[in-house]
Structures are given as C-alpha cells and as structure tokens.
Amino acid sequence: MTTLIKPFRGLRPAPEHASDVVAPPYDVLNTAEARARAEGRPLSFLHISKPEIDLPEDTDPYVPEVYAKGAENFSRLIDDGVLLRELAPAYYAYRLTMGEHAQTGFVCVGNVADYDSNRIRKHEFTRPQKEDDRVRQITALQAQTGPVLLTYRSDKRVAELLAKVARRDPLYDLVADDGIGHTLWRIDERAEVEALTKRVDAMDALYIADGHHRSASASRVAAARRAKDADADGDQSYDYFLCVAFAHDAMQILDYNRVVRDLNGLSPAELVEKAAESFTVSRSDEPAKPAEATHFGMYVGGRWYRLELKPDLLPEDPVASLDVSLLQNLLLAPVLGIGDPRTDSRIEFVGGIRGLAELSRRVDSGEMAAGFALFPTSMEALMAVADAGEVMPPKSTWFEPKLADGLISHILD
C-alpha cells in the first residue's frame, strides 16, 4: 500500500566532505555566480546542479552536453566515495538556521500520485522550459538532487518526534558559505519511521512552498518510466520525489517587493494623488516597512509614503485579497499600466532579504522610478489559495533560509 510519504535510501556526502559538497539551490544563482562560487571547490554540488560552469563560458545551459557533464560529475563523486548511499531507507530531521531563526522539519520522498491528484497541493503555474530542464537533469542523473520545499499544518506529534530526534548526535552540523546552518539527523528506528509515516498520511494535504518545477518534472519522469516498466505498481522509486517538509508556523516568509522603471507619464505628486484613491496615504520620515497586511510602503521622488488600504476595498476572494494582488489590481495595473507582471519589462522584483534600502537605492540611482514595499504573504494565505485550487500571483513569496543542494539526494533505481 502506498502512502503520502515514505523513507528512502538517501545519497549524501561522507561527513568529512559535507561542507565542501553543499551548495545553494540551482535556481538562486546564475551561471556566472555559480562559476565564481565553485572556483577552487571541485567537490561543490554546483558542478552537478549547474554543470555548464565546467564547459566554455558561451555554452547554452540547456544543450545535451551540459546534462551529460552533470551526470559525469555526479558519477565521479559517487565513485570517489564523496557521496555515499544509505544501506536502508530512512527519514531525516533537518534543521535550517539563519541568524536567530531556526526551523526543523523532515526529509522524505513524497508520492507522485498524491501530487497528481492535488493532495500535495500547488499554488503556482510552471513554465515548460524550466520543467523540461529539470526533466533532462533527473533523466541524466537518474536521481533527484534538488528537494521540493513542502509545508503542512502544524502537528504536535510530528513536532514532538522531531524534537526527540534533534536531541541526538547529528550526521552533520555545518554552516555553508552563505552563513546558513544545516543540521541533519537520521530517523531509522522502526517505531519512529512508522509513527511519522502514519501521522503524515493522516493529514488532509501537504503544500508545495517552493519547487513547483521540480515536482512537476518528477511527475513527468514518473509517467515516462511507468509507461515502459512492466513491473510498475505505483510504488517504485520513480513514483516518489525528494522533499523537505516544515510545519507552516515554523517557516519564514520574507517580503517580496517591487520596483517600476517609469511612472507611466505621471509625476511623483500625481502618483501619490492617484494612490490616495484606494489607499490612505501619509508621509514617512523613515523607510516605510509595512507592519501588517493591507499596508504598503512607496518610495518615489526621494520620499517614503505609507499606504493603507481603504477597508471597503478588501475583497473576500483568497487570491484577490493577497497584498500582491491588491497592489497590482489597485495601483500597478490601473495607474502605472503594468498589466502582466510576469512579462512586463517595466517591473522587477526585490527579495526582502535585501532590505528596503535596495528599493530606495535603485530609485535614487535613476534606474527605477518608484519602489513598493509589501508585508510578507502568510503561510495561512498560501494554503488557502492552494485549498481553493487557485494560483498565487507571480513573486508572492520569498522563503528564507533556503535548502541546500547536495546534502541529500534520491536515486531512482
């Protein structure tokens, strides 16, 4: 009988190599950044997740030679004993630490069938090119190396089990070169494995927080493998995908802010006047960091303003009521003429990890004309959108800290 999650035989670094192997997720660095980050680090997982760094600088990252190079580098680390595979299936407790913030979750493989049926719920559209890239990467490696970030409604028994495991000696306790701490414990005692499996299987749903392209590509690979496998029974290794899951109240979402290139023909004063039609506007002598939902900061003409949504304009719809939707539907589209933030070159997005100073810097430099600061989307709002079968607007969430690539991988037998 299949279950929502299951333990697996993880492929992970030998302890003495762990710090040299772990790397940021493949999609947070461009090729030039990855090449610089991996320089002088032959064991870095970037040689697998961004293998174009080992080919000529003008190499298209989506050509077959790139995936072949990744597979070659992956095999080399396995053959050299840098990466070792567990003898028996296990779960893992995984703690991420960034400054004063720490969150502890578990590593598992999630059921593709439950992803396909939307029990592992989505909230984003995917792009075919990015899906194709991950399909080729999984196929070349015959492994899933980038975990999907999941969340679940906080569960007391799961929290107690993870706290118990975290009192033991870890497999790794390291700080990566970006300052993020990664601590991993094996969960292989039979009673604990069965308890975690049963408890999660009783949940109504798991939710994808980050990794929609990785999960979609895993589904595509599973369908292709299943079609050719005479022994397919729904419980093969390819029927599951690599995940790390955290309770919804443990995760940290930062603001995801906006900057726009021009004011659509308006002066700063006219933009402030237009904003006042939907928001209560007040000057601020300091960066206007929103303290709650439906509050915004706006930087234009060298000045910060606080915007508070007029209460009668708040819709009940779970998507339309998101702060990113309110800003888009009441100001960016009707006033600044930005109809589709996915494709409009006049808007860019700034992760909250950079702070509000990045907004004012880009406006003051003349590169941009205005900046908008948002309150972080809540996990409850994300889950409500997924439960409704709806899709979040683009660039709604920025999760920190990020998972590491290379700490643990899932081999497709």
Write the layout of secondary structure elements.
Elements: E1 5-6, E2 10-13, H1 18-21, H2 31-38, H3 46-49, H4 64-79, E3 83-85, E4 91-98, E5 101-111, H5 112-116, E6 120-121, H6 128-141, E7 143-144, E8 148-152, H7 156-165, E9 172-175, E10 181-187, H8 190-201, E11 206-210, H9 212-228, E12 240-247, E13 253-254, E14 256-260, H10 268-275, E15 279-284, E16 295-300, E17 303-309, H11 323-332, E18 347-351, H12 357-364, E19 370-374, H13 379-387, E20 398-399, E21 409-411
Helix pairs in contact: 4-6, 6-9
Task: Describe the 3D structure.
With about 425 residues, the chain is an alpha+beta fold. The chain has two domains: about 5-250 and about 400-410, no CATH class; about 255-375, Conserved hypothetical protein from pyrococcus furiosus pfu- 392566-001, domain 2 (2-Layer Sandwich), CATH 3.30.1760. The chain is about 30% helix and about 25% strand. Strand 9 and strand 10 form a beta hairpin. Helix 4 runs parallel beside helix 6 and helix 6 (about 130-140) packs across helix 9 (about 210-230).
